[in-house]
Amino acid sequence: MKILLLSCGTGGGHDSAAKALLERFQELNIECKIIDPIKLKNEKVSNNLNKSHIKLVTNTPNVFKKMYRLAELYGNLKIKSPIYGINKIFAKTLEDYIIDNNFDVVITTHLYPAEILSSIRKRNSNIHFIVVATDYVSIPFWEETNPDYFIIPNKSLKESFTSKGISENKLVPLGIPISMKFQNNITQKEARIQLSLPLNKKIVLMMSGSTGFGNPIEVIDKMLELYNNKIYIIFVCGTNKKLSSKLTTKYKDKILVKEYVEGINIYMKACDLIMTKPGGLSSTESAISNVPIIFINPIPGCETYNAEFFEEKGMALNLTNIIDLKSYMEELLYNKKQIKIMKQNQLKNINKKSTIDICNFIIKKYNNK
Fold first, then answer.
1. In the chain, how long is the greatest CA-to-CA distance?
2. Tens digit of pLDDT for each residue in 27-42?
3. Which residues contact 302 (CB under 8 A, 6 or more apart)?
4. Residue range 202-222: average pLDDT?
5. d(CA 116, CA 108)
6. pTM (2 decimals)?
7. How confident is the model over 82-92, as pLDDT tens digits?
8. What pLDDT digit, counting tens, does each position of 291-311 carry?
């Protein structure tokens, strides 16, 4: 069996989901490869597209919010989007690559490759592909793609997809794939010792996504004002060196500032509370780590829906007003009953074995094709 994984570098979550599947397939000794299909045709175009997307989201989130809303409205027109038209350009190159390398099935964790593959399937029905959704909502334009199956995060999201015209028969609610390293059962104390973190303080882990989105200073200032030396704050900035430098200069030794870290699973296990923007992957990783969550600084659009889903299921609190920060922190740092309830809700609604289950499903469906 030979599998091709596709993603694009417009956000770390899509790549992380694809890499998680790659990791698991390799453990099973299944031949598997991951590529960016746009880069396959033109690396410069791919790099410019990724940089433009990240710049738009990071620097002008309100513009992105309006574009996302327009995309949602466009879906009601029932005609192919400009996004589909642009991605058709890359179809022939990707089709040749799939055929020349004899891939049995293609898996995409990103919309753009799904659009390319849907264009290919119009003339070549022998191409099999699966979409793995990495947000807790049916994002705009999923409905114009035509995979064999959609792997979705939760069965309660079926209506979000069927309301767009996607067949329920294609929906497989197995969860969002995350790295197998999150299966590590290390204790909080062991994690703290491994990372040389204090054993006698409440630890708050703050994350701003792979690109360091948002302005966390108001929240950090308020936490330091409220709790001073009672808590230990770790802030992970991703690849945003500018944010890292800004926080390091402002807070010096008052908080621990980190850039991208390989062992984020250990940091999650070490902390008492996670504050993060509600990306699909980071939200899932936090819940699987079974740590209380407060969402801050969502990127307008799908991350707003992610936050709503988690809050509705009792898996997180969504901070929209700084006034609520103290009550939220008191509830999730010191209220043992509420902490227990949130952790139980996370275990109930998030599939800890999602990566294993997705890979097993794919093997069962395509191993003999």
1. 64
2. 999 999 999 998 887 6
3. 68, 135, 137, 139, 280
4. 80
5. 10
6. 0.91
7. 777 778 889 99
8. 999 999 887 788 999 999 999
End-to-end CA distance of the chain: 9
Q: How many CA atoms lie within 13 A of 63 on its CB side?
A: 9
Q: In whole angstroms, give the CA distance from residue 55 to residue 10.
A: 10
* 3-state SS record for the chain: CEEEEECCCCCHHHHHHHHHHHHHHHHCCCEEEEECHHHHHCHHHHHHHHHHHHHHHHHCHHHHHHHHHHHHHHHHHCCCCHHHHHHHHHHHHHHHHHHHCCCCEEEECCHHHHHHHHHHHCCCCCCCEEEECCCCCCCCCHHHCCCCEEEECCHHHHHHHHCCCCCHHHEEECCCCCCHHHHCCCCHHHHHHHHCCCCCCEEEEEECCCCCCCCCHHHHHHHHHHHHHHEEEEEECCCCHHHHHHHHHHHCCCCEEECCCCCHHHHHHHCCEEEECCCHHHHHHHHHCCCCEEECCCCCCHHHHHHHHHHHCCCCEECCCHHHHHHHHHHHHCCHHHHHHHHHHHHHHCCCCHHHHHHHHHHHHHCCC
The dihedral over CA atoms of 150, 154, 157, 162, expressed in degrees to the nearest 10, equals 30
Confidence of residue 212 (pLDDT cuts 50, 70, 90): very low
Averaged pLDDT of the chain: 89
- Residue 83: per-residue pLDDT: 78
- Say how many CA atoms lie within 13 Å of 2 toward its Cβ: 9
List Cα–Cα distances, 109 to 37, 64, 201, 303, 327, in angstroms.
12, 21, 38, 16, 37
Task: Tell me how far apart the alpha carbons of residues 220 and 243 are, in angstroms, rounded to a whole number.
Answer: 13
| Mean pLDDT confidence for 230-243 | 88
Model confidence band, residue 145 (pLDDT cutoffs 50, 70, 90): very high
Spell out the long-range contacts of 192-199 with Cβ–Cβ below 8 A and sequence spacing 24 or more: 192/270, 194/266, 194/270, 195/263, 195/266, 195/267, 195/270, 197/232, 197/234, 197/270, 198/232
Residues 6+ apart with CB under 8 A from 290: 343, 346, 347
The average pLDDT across 349-353 equals 96
